[in-house]
């Protein structure tokens, strides 16, 4: 009977970890989770050119990378090394951001309905020297509102 209890406890712990992982993933992929630290970005996004788009539609680098980077950012914030309201917006992965832009702006729908736009942008990006952010660096967020984040700290230090 003792061995059965050990197996049941291990199974229950395993199922609990899976449930926590699924729940944590669900919570951390919602806009409400993002704006707990990035409220100023959300305000500038609401007044930008894509207010209907979720945060992770543009700002994702893939499941594993996102979770590792997210855990790192949470650690840096709680250890006092980073204040999300005083750090410059991350542009560390412009190629991935361009892939995310292209998913909508260079889709098959665009190719069929706006072939000139599609051809022009495909040619510009073909050499790998340019990304969407090269020309459209401030799109999505309203730059004037995003600049306010540096003037209004979330908490004093």
Any key phrases for this structure?
mainly alpha; single chain; 63% helix; 10 helices; disordered C terminus; extended; 157 residues
Lay out the secondary structure.
Elements lengths: L1 H27 L2 H4 L4 H8 L8 H4 L4 H16 L15 H12 L2 H6 L1 H12 L5 H5 L6 H5 L10
What this model shows, in words?
By secondary structure, the chain is an all-alpha fold. 63% of the residues lie in helices and 0% in strands. The longest helix has 27 residues. The chain starts with a helix and ends in a 10-residue tail after the last helix. The C terminus is likely disordered.
Radius of gyration: 21 Å
- Which regions are unreliable across 5 or more consecutive residues at pLDDT < 50? 152-157
- Quaternary class: single chain
Compressed to H and E, one letter per element, the order equals: HHHHHHHHHH
| Share of residues in strands | under 5%
| Mean pLDDT level | 79
**How would the global form be characterised?**
extended
Helix content: 55-70%
| Main sheet properties | none
Structural class: mainly alpha
Total count of helical runs of at least 4 residues: 10
Per DSSP E runs of 2 or more residues, the count of β-strands stands at 0
N-to-C CA distance? 57 Å
């Amino acid at each position: 009977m003792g061995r059965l209890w050990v197996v049941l406890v291990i199974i229950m712990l395993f199922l609990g970890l899976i449930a926590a992982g699924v729940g944590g993933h669900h919570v951390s992929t919602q806009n409400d989770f993002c704006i707990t630290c990035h409220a100023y970005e959300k305000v500038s996004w609401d007044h930008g050119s894509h207010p209907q788009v979720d945060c992770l539609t543009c700002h994702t680098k893939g499941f594993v990378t996102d979770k590792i980077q997210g855990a790192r950012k949470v650690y840096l914030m709680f250890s006092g090394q980073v204040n999300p309201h005083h750090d410059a917006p991350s542009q560390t992965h412009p190629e991935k951001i361009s892939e995310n832009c292209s998913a909508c702006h260079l889709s098959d729908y665009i190719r069929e309905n706006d072939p000139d736009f599609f051809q022009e942008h495909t040619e510009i990006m073909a050499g790998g020297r340019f990304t969407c952010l090269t020309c459209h660096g401030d799109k999505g967020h309203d730059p004037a509102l995003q600049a306010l984040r540096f003037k209004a700290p979330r908490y004093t230090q």
